[in-house]
Write the structure tokens for this entry.
Amino acid sequence: MGRKAIFLDVDGTLTLPNGQVSQKVEEAISKVRKNGHYVFLCTGRNKAGVCALMPIGFDGVICSAGGYIEMNGDKVYESSLSQEDLQLARDVFDQHHIMYNLEATHMTFQDEEMNKEFIKHRLTDEKLNSEMIRLLNEQKDRFNIHSLEEYENNPQPIQKLCFMCDDIQKLEKPKEILSEKFNFIIHEIFSQDVINGEIIIKGTNKGNAVQFVTKKLGLSLEDTIGFGDSMNDYEMIKVCHHAVVMGNGVKELKQYASSICESVEDDGIYHELKRLGLLS
């Protein structure tokens, strides 16, 4: 078997709900690389959001949904929003009372209310008050989160925005205004009471990033394998020759899959790599 390039989404694909990676999947990644194949993270997270995963061992990372790429520790591609597009998005979200963050390569700018919303879905009502402060501090340290006010004093290139609101109808007008320049992606990680998603400048996506990396490696797209679970993986799943959607993935994405593996909680990546003969 010739060399393969394997692209792994992070949340809901590589990492469990607690943010960890199972030992079985870690060992599978190590074995695949020892067998001469390449393994890349391919995530919507920025570089700051994957630092804790790097000790597992990867050949590179695609971050910010294709806005930042590293190979063997070297930056090979980076894009960012123009100041005009960034200000437009911020103005529209502010006008419609939608929370948002600003994701730079090495840090995220986000207000306290949005920090809390990301924590709430992980906690039961009994633990909400007692655990909130500890988890807020842990989250800020792990993902290098700073306040939005800090961005005004220390502006940096921004690669994408995540947003959050309590009613899908609040997004109708922002989508109408921003869809000419941005792709809107809704995530299904919270309850129906909280709408979470991201906007990514058109032309930047995981599929284009996979093509860029594959060409750099001197491989063909026929040598690519992609694992994902949500619609921000759509372009990657469409581009990769063997497209794997997790058992816990969204129904809409599964229709484009070459195969559907076990869920992230059942070591889906390990089982699919084994079926493909990459662990032999």
About this structure: Confidence is low (pLDDT under 50) at residues 123-128. The longest strand covers residues 195-201.
